[in-house]
Amino acid sequence: xxxxxxxxxxxxxxxxxxxxxxxxxxxxxxxxxxxxxxxxxxxxxxxxxxxxxxxxxxxxxxxxxxxxxxxxxxxxxxxxxxxxxxxxxxxxxxxxxxxxxxxxxxxxxxxxxxxxxxxxxxxxxxxxxxxxxxxxxxxxxxxxxxxxxxxxxxxxxxxxxxxxxxxxxxxxxxxxxxxxxxxxxxxxxxxxxxxxxxxxxxxxxxxxxxxxxxxxxxxxxxxxxxxxxxxxxxxxxxxxxxxxxxxx
Length: 248
Known about the structure:
By secondary structure, the protein is α/β, with parallel strands linked by helices. Helix content is 37%, strand content 18%.
């Protein structure tokens, strides 16, 4: 690392669990973020600030005025811009030295299969089950760690899928095809700080995975109740009947 990097990442370097070795892992990492809305916004800017060397942003939506209540990577001036480009601008404003690749269309399964093997980790910050299922399937197939989050109203959840670890359950161990009729934020609302908190937790879990530190949320579903200000946890086990990882 050069002098500027040592200064920029000095607070990481002061952490014994990260230090120069962990920071170098971050600088060499490639993270894909699927969805640059309420979850992906804080995740993107924190991973950029952390020095993740390459970020790929995938989203086909444009910034709308109603997004600004919670999607902190975007601004009033960028209403109408593609979210990927807006998030890139916000992330580069924090850290201009990282590489950011933008994907402005919905990724098909074969495209996920092509992109994900080059990734060190994937963050699923999407807002629908078909995308979550597709990203999960590709991550399991290529044994790439996945950090998936969701939030609605005052509640949120995060789990980590570690296909590189034999006993780690995947997203389809928890949810089935019948769960696809989930509520949306547009229908039921979302409190901005809730989705921001979940996105920050996703970024934290990604850094832990990339640096190989601490205990990640593999095999655990973290639940957040914003009104009661409570965190709860559900222990998860790999399902032998899972259509994605059951025979993995």
